[in-house]
Fold Glutamine--tRNA ligase.
Amino acid sequence: ALGLFTGIGLSEAKARETLRNGALSALLRQAVLQARSALGPALDKATGTLLYNAAARLRDPKHLGFLVGYIVRREILTDLQLSAALEYVSTHPLEPLDTADFERACGVGVCVTPEQIEEAVEAVISEHRAELLAERYHFNMGLLMGEARSRLRWADGKTIKNEVDLQVLHLLGPKTEADLEKKPKAAKARPAPAEKQKAALVENGEVGTETRSLLEQLRGEALKFHKPGENYKTEGYVVTPNTMALLKQHLEVTGGQVRTRFPPEPNGILHIGHAKAINFNFGYAKANGGVCFLRYDDTNPEKEEEKYFTAIREMVEWLGYQPYAVTHASDYFDQLYTWALELIRRGHAYVCHQKVEEIKGHNPPPSPWRDRPVEESLLLFEDMRKGKFGEGEATLRMKLVMEDGKMDPVAYRVKFTPHHRTGDKWCIYPTYDYTHCLCDSIEHITHSLCTKEFQARRSSYFWLCNALDVYCPVQWEYGRLNLLYTVVSKRKIIRLVETGAVRDWDDPRLFTLTALRRRGFPPEAINNFCARVGVTVAQATMEPHLLEACAREVLNEQAPRAMAVLEPLKVTITNFPVPKALEVLVPNFPVDESRGFHKVPFQSTVYIEETDFREEVDKGYKRLAPGQPVGLRHAGYIITVQNIIKDASGRVIELEVTCTKSDVAEKPKAFIHWVSEPLACEVRLYERLFLHKNPEDPSEVPGGFLSDLNPDSLRVVHNALVDSSVLSARPFDKFQFERLGYFSLDPDSKEGKLVFNRTVMLKEDPGK
């Protein structure tokens, strides 16, 4: 084989490299032997190159002999013709090929004369004569080549280049010293700061300098996905004699519209990784004028609960998407069962009695029942449906080997668990491997978008649709989105709840979508985060602070300002100018006062943060201290300490101060926030739930994720105070507490006791 390949002009190194690729070397061997039988043992290098490229680039090997025939008859002579031939056979999957149409598309028999090349080059040079004379040899000669090639598609590229060089030399004469000097590069105009995009592209945890909106990333041909009805143009897509007819029927149903689906299992709460899937599936449909189904994969009744169905739809709609239709895999149980019978009749499935433990892993022993008669499997499958087998005593398995080496995946198993929608009708339930592609087929999905770990199931996806002769969608994979310092596994979150480490699935320290909503993350921030991560094939593992940055951007625009004090210190103004409270107007958004104001009371007793007062002043300290006055934000007054009151332990419990209007006093070093006639509230301050980046990694956390819990992940401030402007707030309403951070009203709030969750601090903690 080595001699065979070096005999067509391959170097020995290239020939050895080719031999390491079993599929390529088999095709190339077939091509070379066919060419030798027609042309003899000695093949010139040009023919050898065409044969190699045909074998290496051909998607469907059944067309190899057809293409080699044109090469050995000298009807395909150039790589350009071969590229056109390969494109033609990949886009015309039906047999037999229309040879006349094929030859027209590949330029077979087209003879381009030297005179035609000379005339074409002459015409192109004439069009650019003025620029050529001005720029001489600094002119882009590739432009001349390209335009000449566009006029004579099948002309030889080298001949065109020689003709261009000859005619340019004739026009300009030999190169001068000035022609040999390098053309100075034009300085690139730097964009003004205002033109720079605020958003940042995030790759592998690093922030780049630009990003596009999610819809821009997903629109049109940005992802190189196939157009509806052109599934067969996708690499690896299997074409059968019925494919084109099925695609025609598919287009009649969809009208050429893009159709996607988001297919969660209703056995847990959605997390941040699902947010990317939601944005990708719904976003791709929206960006391309299509529709997206929300389909519950409810094939495992043991783990499914109604609360999960409700929460999933709630989160999809919270992120801003409306499903075209809400469907369930169970909607199609009757059809799936009918197809399972047909799969058995066609010899593609059988009833097996191996135990679950026996068929686990990638190298289980072959099933001794794989070749049992079709009639026997039909009877046994019916017995499975009637409940004559116990759980684990029988399964229906499909006859195929998956890409990851897994053999004969299970299609149906016995489960004596009532289904929340079908009740006791079924005691056999289909698996994901069987259900997923067939539900996609029933709903005429055009693009079945899933995460990268499902790539190993792509071949079984195509196989099953084609085994049943039903419409076959195309599966496309993208990279998962993971976050550091957290766990998202349903099993691990349940352990956290059971051990009391978190309260429930919506505990604000988790990264489930319900938890993020409760903590106060706006849906726009989550969508922006997904856009910044981008639609990547590689898995993205991100730092939480990048999501927090997205939240700050949105909340800065959305969250009205209020004032709150977490650790109150009483301040009595001894010379308050009036006997009753004043009303102070506070802008909801100080940078844009057109967005309104709210009123807060201001009277002789106010409360400030304990940390905003010190008895002794350090260098650089600018807040309140004896001899160092401060301004009260928005009030128009400056206060100066006159007396410090302490309890028996020496702790400061009250300050007596005097006030002066700010327009007649010297400007203080700082202005601090305050509250007067405040509302009592509870404030919950959150930090990371885990101490290490990868709490599930045994090398990082040998004791397991439960040993890595951060003891300071939650601090509850029971006696915080907040100004009365928030009195009418409802759960999930968001505010910026000035100088403290962004906060959201928790559903635990009740009359007389508001509860706020801190979403993020105003600025990123340098420690993170």
